[in-house]
Design a protein that fits this description.
Order of helices and strands of chain A: HEEEEHEEEEEEE
Shape of chain A: elongated
Structural class of chain A: mainly beta
Shape of chain B: elongated
Structural class of chain B: mainly alpha
Oligomer: heterodimer
Order of helices and strands of chain B: HEHHEEHHH
Radius of gyration of chain A: 21 Å
CATH topology of chain A: Lipocalin
Largest interface: A-B, 75 and 72 residues
Helix content of chain B: 55-70%
Number of domains of chain A: 1
Helix content of chain A: 10-25%
CATH superfamily of chain A: Lipid/polyisoprenoid-binding, YceI-like
CATH architecture of chain A: Beta Barrel
Distance between the termini of chain A: 44 Å
Radius of gyration of chain B: 37 Å
Number of helices of chain B: 6
Number of helices of chain A: 2
């Protein structure tokens, strides 16, 4: 009897640690990069990002992908130059893998470790903060990924011989729903 | 507590730990592999080369059962397929348009000089009075500048005209104004030297410039204005922030 009690004491709390698995799908997305030049401030936006997330065994893994050519800065010539500079025909996808603790999925701030594949390079960003807002059954996630040209070995485009800034922060605004 | 109970408890304990320890070890391995590094601010941690994109087969297995893969997102193989030919065309296009941009700015210098030396073709006579007929030296200088401007202009234009065209790419934005203005300064750059040549011949024949040649100046001014507007259009919108560090 005592042994059974001992076993129960060991096992019952363990079952309490397990968190329910969940799957998430991106409903809407707005991904924007910002480019700075002494003569220009440019934002290129895409609404074509797709995403899926899985939470399992205490961790969440989210995958977000978008085609480079779907970004629109308001000028065709600039967009084509962006695709060329980022080797967007050779590497047409930007793929972001986010990994964070499942415990954060219900909190206001999510701190995710990101792996970004872009322009044929992979860069990692740790503890990137994203704000989570619950809207009915949907969850809106907003945040900025601090990308730089040098992280992806992108030769900075120049205008009037002056190159753009190295920083090209990418703003993420996505709405997710649980499957 | 009798020995039998102690023995039973020990066996139960051993059984429990033998069940728990492999799970704990696995959990520790998993955590060490996946746990985020606790850093206060987002930092790029590492870089590595990614092979060119290849489409994943629609039924390709996910890297791990719990991790979503690219094929889960519904992209078609064409969308994720690398296109080295297009990349090569884009590279060539950018290279040619860079030369177009540089030559276009260089052209601005002789163009402005030609515009300035046009009215300055007037010279002082021997007894001090202004003569309306320009001297040969001034005329020649103005004509030489005009010739250089024309040559540079058409070289500049050729780099834009012969740059590879990217299919399925409808133009929008400032580039449309830039290209539309070419239909003003392009014909202007053809007409201006022709009218200038006529005017030059009339001047050399001792005649006052007359007829269609008298439009040489106004056409040149309109051409330079359209050319300048074309440069501004492709740079629009301009936010001058030269004081900011790069």
């Amino acid at each position: 009897m005592n042994a059974k009690l001992l076993l129960a004491l060991f096992l019952v709390p363990l079952s309490g640690f397990a968190q329910s698995d969940s799957q998430w799908i991106a409903d809407q997305s707005t991904i924007s990069y910002h480019m700075s030049h002494p003569m220009h401030e440019v934002d290129g936006t895409s609404h074509a990002a797709k995403g899926k997330g899985v939470c399992h065994a205490g961790w969440c893994d989210f995958l977000i992908a978008v085609q480079v050519k779907t970004f629109d800065s308001g000028d065709t010539n600039r967009d084509l130059h962006m695709i060329e500079a980022t080797r967007g025909a050779q590497y047409p996808m930007i793929v972001v893998r986010a990994h964070f603790a499942q415990a954060e999925i219900a909190s206001q701030w999510i701190h995710a470790d990101l792996e970004v594949q872009f322009a044929g390079q992979t860069a990692h960003y740790t503890q990137v903060p994203f704000e989570r807002t619950q809207r009915g059954s949907e969850v809106r996630i907003t945040g900025t990924i601090p990308l730089t040209c040098s992280d992806f070995k992108i030769e900075r485009p120049s205008f009037l011989t002056v190159p753009i800034k190295n920083e090209i922060p990418v703003r993420v605004d996505m709405t997710w729903r649980q499957q | 507590m009798n020995p039998e109970t102690i023995s039973l408890s020990l066996r139960a304990g051993i059984l429990t730990f033998s069940l728990l320890i492999p799970n704990l070890t696995a959990a520790q391995n998993s955590a060490s592999a996946q746990a985020p590094q606790q850093k206060p601010a987002p930092q790029p941690a590492a870089q590595q080369q990614t092979p060119p994109s290849q489409p994943e087969p629609p039924n390709a297995p996910s890297p791990a059962p719990q991790q979503p893969s690219l094929s889960d997102l519904g992209f078609t193989p064409q969308q994720v397929q690398a296109d080295p030919k297009l990349q090569a065309e884009l590279n060539k296009r950018t290279e040619m348009l860079k030369i177009h941009q540089r030559l276009g700015l260089i052209t601005l210098a002789p163009m402005a000089a030609t515009l300035i030396t046009g009215p300055m073709a007037k010279a002082k006579g021997k007894n001090g009075q202004t003569i309306t007929e320009p001297s040969n030296a001034n005329l020649d200088f103005h004509a030489a500048l005009g010739g250089a401007t024309t040559a540079l202009y058409f070289t500049t234009a050729s780099y834009a005209i012969f740059a590879p065209k990217i299919p399925n790419n409808p133009k929008h934005g400032a580039i449309r104004f830039h290209e539309a203005l070419a239909f003003v300064h392009g014909p202007g750059m053809i007409l201006t030297p022709i009218l200038g040549y006529d005017a030059y011949k009339q001047e050399n024949a001792g005649e006052k410039v007359h007829g269609i040649a008298s439009f040489h100046g106004p056409v040149a001014v309109a051409t330079v204005c359209a050319y300048g507007a074309s440069i501004v259009a492709v740079s629009w919108p301009i936010h001058v922030k030269f004081w900011e560090k790069q």
